[in-house]
Amino acid sequence: MAMAVLTSFWIFLMAVCMPGGSAQMVQMDASKWGFVGTQVELRCLFVNSNPPVKISQVTWQKFLNGTKQNVAIANPTMGVSVLPPFKDRVSFKQPAVRQRTPSLEDTTIMFSNLQLSDEAAYICEYTTFPAGNRENMVNLTVYAQPTTEMTLSTPTIVARSSNRKTPVATCLSANGKPPSMITWDTRLKGEASTQETINANGTITVRSSYLLVPSRATHQQKLTCIVTYRNERISADSVILNVLYEPEVTIEGFDGNWYLNRQDVQLTCKADANPPVTVYQWKLLNGSMPNNVEIRNNTLFFKGPVTNDLAGTYVCDATNNIGTRSGLVEVNVTEFPNIPPPGGREIPQEQHSSGAAIGGAVGGVVLLGVAGVLLFVFLRRRQRTFKGDYSTKKHVFGNGYSKAGGMPAHPPLPKNLQYPEDSDDEKKPAQIGGPGGFEGSDRDFEADAEDLKRPYFTVDEGESREYDERTLAFQYDPEPEIADDMVSQTDGSVISKKEWYV
Ligand SMILES: *[C@@H]1O[C@H](CO)[C@@H](O)[C@H](O)[C@H]1NC(C)=O
Ligand SMILES: *[C@@H]1O[C@H](CO)[C@@H](O)[C@H](O)[C@H]1NC(C)=O
Ligand SMILES: *[C@@H]1O[C@H](CO)[C@@H](O)[C@H](O)[C@H]1NC(C)=O
Ligand SMILES: *[C@@H]1O[C@H](CO)[C@@H](O)[C@H](O)[C@H]1NC(C)=O
Ligand SMILES: *[C@@H]1O[C@H](CO)[C@@H](O)[C@H](O)[C@H]1NC(C)=O
Ligand SMILES: *[C@@H]1O[C@H](CO)[C@@H](O)[C@H](O)[C@H]1NC(C)=O
Questions:
Q1: Ligand 5 atom 10 nearest Cα
Q2: Read out DSSP for 43-55?
Q3: pTM beyond 0.85
Q4: How many CB atoms lie within 10 A of CB 426?
Q5: Residue from 115, 117, 203 to probe ligand 3 pocket by mutation (most atoms less than 8 Å from CB)
Q6: Which pairs from 441-444 meet CB under 8 Å and 24+ separation?
Q7: What are the Cα distances from residue 324, in Å, to 226, 248, 252, 327, 450?
Q8: CA distances from 31 to 6, 42, 137 (A)
Q9: Which of 42, 87, 108, 144 could be bridged to 177 by S-S, CB 3.0 to 4.6 A?
């Protein structure tokens, strides 16, 4: 791409300059690069004009730090000369040049086994007659692939009580040019510290250390060093941290329910440690170990029944290479078990009681819920009876039944009055199964027959069970007297004056 653009640029220049007559030029790339040890081609083309000028000699020079040094010379009659420091690594690409012919239009050189010291500008100079000298320049950059390695700073990291950050791993990308970039990938909450040093030969060594506070939590964690060189990930090495730490001690076995005569209780000293615990030591604060105790490894076995002598504060010292830490448990002995039969001696008492408490609480909530629903249904029906129902005059006196009055628990169906829901034009009660009965009463009949088998009140009765609420309202008042504040209606229903005037 760049090459194509460059070439077309030169063609354009040639087209512009050729007609001018004295416009010879030297064509080169602006820059080239190569890795140490590889080969690179430095292009040099002489663009002659018409009439052509005569090429007397071509000289390649290294231009560095303000000074020029001859690299190679091609002469049409004398031949080719490559100078000592470059003798083995520089050659002209065109065999014709090497064969001492006068055709020196293409004096491209091949530069092999590149060294860092080869990085410089290279001048290709044409000496002509009668036009004089023409020259151009290419900048050669030499890259060096870095060598990368990752090391744990110390083979083992010891967790200490201090909060000082220490380097746990180092990643090194040495002698690279251009320098590489080092990043860390880990779940650890540490930080990286990176330094670059420039070597005498121009390469750069990058060293990055990962620092953290070593702890139990950092043990076995993965730490990955990623090296990016010239925008490319060239390595990703991981280490798993090995952090040594003192024992973390807990004592298991006391469930708070050591009652007299309980059999075969025990205490176990559990320690999380790296390296593993080598020594466990038990002691009883302010006293000596009971006689019936047997110590095996990290466990205290109390043989036989529990006695009051067992009570006390038990301490377990666990020791590994790093240090010694203690755990303690206060054992108390009760006269009786805290929980019903000691069937499961491993079941802590708290769990039991909290389970029961939860059960009780759940039961209570359910009961409350049921009560709430019952109350809600009751109130809602009452409300409808006292408000909306007056308008449709569903409130009928004299047809109530009474359980107390020795009536059957459920009214006989023919007496069961049914009212359409939310109907304004149906003012009068209809008798199901009666001569002026409801249409489609067969289905209702069946539904109501089903009802007969049920308890008198049920919570989830449908809206159509009007007789229930009527019964509820009047069952203890089979022959009511119309109160002073009630207004009698022509159909036998009454409404409250209070409601009427609202
Ligand atoms: C030029 O090169 C010399 C030695 O090769 C070095 O000491 C000097 O610093 C260079 N000068 C510059 C300006 O780079
Ligand atoms: C080539 O190098 C010289 C000096 O080292 C610098 O002045 C010039 O800008 C460079 N040219 C290009 C195209 O990089
Ligand atoms: C550059 O120098 C370093 C030490 O200074 C050396 O290890 C390295 O090999 C050198 N690199 C090249 C490409 O010569
Ligand atoms: C006995 O120990 C348990 C658990 O440590 C504790 O909950 C309880 O209160 C103690 N009882 C007495 C009497 O100290
Ligand atoms: C025993 O306990 C008392 C206080 O409870 C304490 O002052 C004393 O130092 C303890 N003795 C031993 C030997 O630990
Ligand atoms: C416990 O001690 C016994 C000997 O008393 C030994 O054989 C066994 O390996 C030990 N177990 C552990 C886990 O240390």
A1: 286
A2: --EEE--SSPPEE
A3: no
A4: 14
A5: 203
A6: 444/418
A7: 38, 9, 18, 10, 79
A8: 12, 9, 8
A9: 144
Q: How far is CA 450 from CA 432, 445, 465, 471, in A?
A: 15, 8, 12, 18
> Exposure of 59 by Cβ count < 10 A (0-12 exposed, 13-18 middle, 19+ buried)?
buried
Give the CA diameter of the chain: 148
Ligand nearest to the CA of 147: 3
What's the rounded Cα separation, in Å, for the pair 362 and 356?
Answer: 10
Q: Which residues pair with 224 in a beta bridge?
A: 185, 238
Per-residue pLDDT of the chain (502 residues; tens, 9 = 90+): 444 444 444 444 444 444 444 578 999 999 999 999 999 999 999 988 777 888 999 999 999 999 999 999 999 888 899 999 899 999 999 877 766 666 788 999 999 999 999 999 999 999 998 888 999 999 999 999 999 888 877 777 888 878 889 999 999 999 999 999 999 999 999 999 999 999 999 999 999 999 999 999 999 999 999 999 999 999 999 999 999 999 999 999 999 999 999 998 999 999 999 999 999 999 999 888 888 899 988 999 999 999 998 999 999 999 999 999 999 999 999 999 886 654 545 444 443 433 333 444 444 444 555 555 555 555 565 554 443 333 333 333 333 333 343 333 343 343 333 434 444 444 444 343 334 334 433 444 444 444 444 333 333 333 333 333 333 333 333 333 444 444 444 444 444 444 434 3
Cβ–Cβ contacts within 10 Å for residue 482, how many?
Answer: 10
Q: Which of 118, 145, 172, 201 to mutate to test the pocket of ligand 3 (most atoms within 8 A of CB)?
A: 201
353 CB near ligand 4 (under 6 Å): no
Q: Which ligand is nearest to the CA of 140?
A: 2
Give 219-286 as a DSSP string: TT-EEEEEEEETTEEEEEEEEE--EEEEEEEEEE---S-EETT-EEEEEEEEEEEESPP-EEEEEETT
Query: In whole angstroms, what is the distance from residue 73 CA to residue 124 CA?
Result: 10
CB 18 within 8 Å of CB 50: yes
Backbone dihedral angles phi then psi of residue 35, each to the nearest 5 degrees = -80, 155
Hunting for tokens 């491209």 — which residue is that?
108
How far is residue 344 from each of residues 262, 339, 432, measured CA to CA in Å? 12, 10, 64
Secondary structure letter of residue 177 according to DSSP: B
Residue among 269, 278, 297 whose CB has most ligand 6 atoms within 8 A, to mutate: 297
Between the CA of 280 and the centroid of ligand 4 the distance, in Å, is 26
Task: Look at ligand 2, atom 13, and give the residue with the nearest C-alpha.
Answer: 30
Helices (H), 54-184: 95-98
